[in-house]
Design goal:
about 375 residues; alpha/beta; Rossmann fold; 11 strands; about 40% helix; about 20% strand; globular
Length: about 375
Amino acid sequence: MKYLTEYRDADLVHGLINKIKEITTQHWTLMEICGGQTHSIIKNGLDQLLPDQIELVHGPGCPVCVTPLELIDKALAIASKPDVIFTSYGDMLRVPGSQADLFSVRARGGDIRVVYSPLDAVKLAQENPDKEVVFFAIGFETTAPANVMSVLQADQLGLDNFSILVSHVRVPQAIEAILSSPHNRVQGFLAAGHVCAVMGYWEYIPLAKKYNIPMTITGFEPLDIAQGILTTVESLEAGTCEVKNAYIRAVSKKGNQNAQAVINKVFEECDRKWRGIGLIPGSGWRLRPLYTKYDAEKRFQVETIQAEESPLCISGLVLQGQKKPDQCEAFGTLCTPENPLGATMVSDEGACAAYYRYRTQTPGSQEKGL
């Protein structure tokens, strides 16, 4: 625990906060990309320690949150079929679709199982040759290597009863979508260290130059985040637009090139819908033609399923940094973790869930609009 507790040292964090206060001369709006960072910020009250001139808004960095509604409905349709074992990480079971969630399907008799790795799903396919085993392959770049390895392993074993429902999304394209929006307010980014550990940060450099915006790669502990904020504010105050790595213990510029190679072997780039945001060109991955026999959408013929978002849910505005969770009229009343309107309230990394869990402000008490 030694090296973990050091990154939670309150005195060290306050020291960095004091440095941020010393150098800040004007208002800056920063966005943390990852939902894990959001929870760390809210849980530890980092945003409340910062000077008033520094505003943190919360980005779309939660794969559960941005999995489109129609993908959830496709999962529900597949999981409801007889002779199907539908496997998923646990946090997806409570994400609401149009009419239900995976827990509801399981309550009605669907064989839905929580796994800790997609390779567990491959093993289930081996052990149950009379069943169709489907893995819900969601995530950012971080989970892609394990998901593609499940396909490669199933292919090597000659399994005809294994498939994946793919909902992979990519961070750089989401950053560009936010920065190119006419409503963008973000002036600096805290990039997600775990994503960059896989992919590196070379893709962020042209974005920083194109939009004249600094980015800092950082981790998830309070000291990591405080250092990331300090580094970003230093760049803003100096008028520079570099990409800086404040997470050198885990991230290199090129990333894990072996992981990138295996991803590119199995996946190819595609356009992808993001829940609450809409279609972002080139922001997703799908199976290459050589591996489409493992595509659950095609195998179960659910490609045509469409869905409409709840008009009461403002998760899209939250995910783009245009609203805070507690600026939603449904927050904490019509929308709670037990009865969520959107995935940002149900996900363990969702911004709305973080505010509900760690903040005690009265819903709707803050000024509307950003």
